[in-house]
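Quick question about two entries, pasted in order.
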Amino acid sequence: MTNLMRYTTSDIPALMERINKNSIGMDEYFDRLFNLHETTTNYPPYNLVQVNNVESLLEIALAGFKKEEVNVFTEYGKLFVEGQKSDSETERTFVHKGVASRSFKRAWTLSDDTEVREVTFEDGLLVIRLGKVVPEHHARKDYL
């Protein structure tokens, strides 16, 4: 227990060098963690609801979008949600425009054991049901 060290935020580069030097195959996980390409915008607004230990819901408010204008897909461990809005509203003159209906692209990084189970779009609310894949040897088994 004499090799224990205390690290502060100023020691992060040294810590990362030590971890990378003593691990194999972990670089992908650290790249995911430190190189997140998250958008800086809060549009569209969303909720992430934890239903239980193995299931969660991602609820995205898409007021003014039609189902045909929304695309949901996964690729390389990320969940992408895109909305393509046509520019037909430029001819209209707004007295007040409170509903933002602009095109967008959002991405969320998924863990290796998370899968998209269901996608529904109803009344301007996109609901993506996410679930954890629990290996059979870790799943609960009742014997009596």
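Here is the second entry:
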Amino acid sequence: MTDKKKKNEKIMDKSKEDLTVYPINIDDDKLNNGGDGKHYPLNNPVHLHLICGRVKSGKSLLMNNLYLSSRFYGDEYKTKILISTTAHNDAVNKYMLQDFDFIFTDYSDDLLEEILDIIKNDDGDGRFLIIFDDMICSNQSFKRTGKTDLLTQIITTYRHIGNGEFEGKLAICMAVQYFKHLSPIARNNCSGYYIMGHFPEAEIKKMSEALSIFGRDGKGFMKIFNKSRQKPYDFLYLSVEHMEARRNHSDLLWSSDNGFNFDDSNTDGDKLDIDNDKNIENNK
């Protein structure tokens, strides 16, 4: 055996002494994501929230609470931006129109580029919030093939967008009427879902396939979904950050650590609970 081979074997033997993967010490202040847990069970202030619900499902009411009230994230952002075609037509948006710094009724890559430039040139650790309200639909002009569009780029990098000194300066909330309008990239980078209102059984099935990480499989997800619907305007809150499923924000239904937090033997996981759905609708 040559001296070189002997030397390499010694290096390999030595490397096997400790194969532990150690964490890297990072200055949390530089991350600027508010990761101190004070908002639990909500996600950190730097997040991508995906809200799915049809008209009159309570989406606007939820966003008003989340981003205006100090009980939630109302005090977490230096600048708030709403991009919505119906911003001035929905009476529920009255207070958002008063509180938000910028309101846009049309989306374009140029607009988003301008907003990004403002964020990158903004001094300090102040965070920005962008809400895209029903801006993504079947006829929207976002690119689906070829060069990655700017919105997709931001969705994949929003956690790291900053000014060089601080990252974590951007939070995003996207509200859509149809689950199918949420791209796989958006779903893969999501911090939390809000599933609101009533859906056809076929669309719930799509959700159960895409979100089966909650409940471990499609049937498990359906049990969680059916259990989350007890009263009018109940919503299902799915925190990817904490791997928890809740009815509204209060009732823990499932967690990755402890599984179901209710007797799931009496809850149907094969289909949407149509009878319960009708009862909720009739009790409004």
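Reply: The longest strand covers residues 170-176. The chain has ten helices and ten strands. Hope that helps.
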